[in-house]
């Protein structure tokens, strides 16, 4: 896979919002724009040539770093871009000298959970009914990954972490 990863800035806002519209991680556009200007947050972008095809948003916490969102356009999934972004996130968190990287993921997002587990993340807990139902046109549903839904169609969040050594 021939991709490059770099930190995004405010000039990348339109491309970032386009990727998020495709990936549908659930991060609101206002929060994405704010993250680009926040010195306590890194927004990393994965490019093929000059085209942004994926991103990861990670924030500094007092002792940890937290992955707030990660998204890859549907046509690029399963080709290693998510893994490349996660490696860049781990590098950033280590450079910040954080102890752990935290994240949460929809319980039904088996592809993401498998990626995180391969990268050394362990499940720490679960938030019951945390996420609202996935929209019928969500890319994950189109790609054969139906969400596991509970009461009133809501979905659990898995809390995961990895120690940064």
What does this protein look like?
The chain is of the alpha+beta class and 165 residues long. It has one domain: Gcn5-related N-acetyltransferase (GNAT) (Aminopeptidase), CATH 3.40.630.30. Helices cover 29% and strands 34% of the residues. It has helices spanning 13-23, 29-37, 81-95, 110-118, 139-142; strands spanning 4-7, 41-48, 51-60, 65-72, 100-106, 122-131, 155-163. It has a 7-stranded mixed beta sheet, sandwiched between helices. Strand 2 and strand 3 form a beta hairpin. The longest helix is centred in the middle third of the chain and has 15 residues, at 81-95. It is globular, with a radius of gyration of 15 Å. The model is unreliable at 139-150 (pLDDT under 50).
What structural category do the secondary elements indicate?
A: alpha+beta
Number of helices: 5
By CATH, the topology is Aminopeptidase
- Please provide the ordered H/E string of secondary-structure elements: EHHEEEHEHEHE
Return the CATH architecture: 3-Layer(aba) Sandwich
Question: Beta-strand level of the residues, as a percent range?
Answer: 25-35%
